[in-house]
């Protein structure tokens, strides 16, 4: 970015490309911060693991924000489910939704698993710029979903024609997608705060969407294209 006032890397000791490399690798692969510290040493770069942690905390949510306008539109069939993430040795709930092709619609971290949390998640997904108005919501047998669905429909937030289906096997695709996110959280052995977890998960989800080919002009499996997109989103010359 030409305007230094909008340069997200201003005053950083390390070059922007090194910062983005560490952030991108942490968010894409099952690595710990100490793994990345050692990997940077191989490049003769002395970067403390706590520094990499601070980079992820700052730039992971920013990556998610910047990639949103570039996402392809998803389909009108939603697969909605929640999985578990450990924060301060307590389980919290990561609400997630994908379409039948496995494309991520949206996600939300919540300390509770109830109707209110389900409503908040569905509302967040409804206003996402890349999601189509739902024709059908596929959920499991969690009683919170019908409650949230009925309230949103009564309030005119969901289309009158939208259906709710509680058929567990239809959600196999999102359960597979959960595994990818869970695998990324394992090296860190849980999070120390809810805010830390949320900021990191925003980055995990953003890189997962890019990896799946959801960004315009970047195909699934195009690793160099995915790398170039992240660099471009931050206005860095590769």
Automatic annotation (TrEMBL):
Transmembrane segments: none
Biological processes per GO annotation: DNA integration; DNA recombination; transposition
Pfam family, one: DDE_Tnp_IS240
Keywords: DNA recombination, DNA-binding, Transposition
Gene Ontology MF annotations: DNA binding
Any coiled-coil regions, as ranges: none
Keyword Mitochondrion applies: no
Integrase catalytic domain ranges (all copies): 65-228
Superkingdom per UniProt: Bacteria
PANTHER family given in the database record: BLL1675 PROTEIN
The name this protein goes by in its record: IS6 family transposase
Organism: Reticulibacter mediterranei
């Amino acid at each position: 970015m030409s305007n230094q006032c909008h340069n997200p890397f201003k005053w950083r000791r390390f070059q922007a490309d090194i910062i983005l490399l560490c952030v991108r690798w942490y968010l894409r692969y099952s690595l710990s911060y100490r793994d990345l510290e050692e990997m940077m040493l191989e490049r003769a770069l002395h970067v403390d693991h706590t520094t990499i942690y601070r980079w992820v905390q700052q730039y992971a949510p920013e990556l998610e924000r910047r990639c949103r306008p570039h996402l392809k539109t998803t389909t009108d069939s939603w697969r909605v489910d929640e999985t578990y993430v450990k924060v301060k040795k307590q389980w919290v709930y990561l609400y997630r939704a994908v379409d039948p092709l496995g494309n991520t619609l949206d996600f939300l971290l919540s300390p509770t698993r109830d109707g209110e949390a389900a409503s908040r998640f569905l509302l967040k997904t409804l206003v996402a710029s890349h999601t189509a108005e739902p024709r059908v919501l596929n959920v499991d047998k969690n009683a919170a979903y019908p409650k949230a669905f009925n309230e949103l429909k009564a309030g005119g937030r969901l289309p009158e024609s939208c259906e709710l289906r509680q058929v567990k096997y239809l959600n196999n695709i999102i359960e597979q997608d959960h595994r990818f996110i869970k695998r990324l959280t394992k090296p860190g052995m849980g999070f120390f705060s809810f805010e830390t977890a949320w900021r990191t998960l925003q980055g995990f989800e953003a890189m997962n969407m890019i990896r799946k080919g959801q960004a315009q002009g970047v195909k699934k499996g195009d690793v160099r294209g995915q790398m170039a997109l992240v660099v471009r989103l931050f206005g860095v010359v590769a």
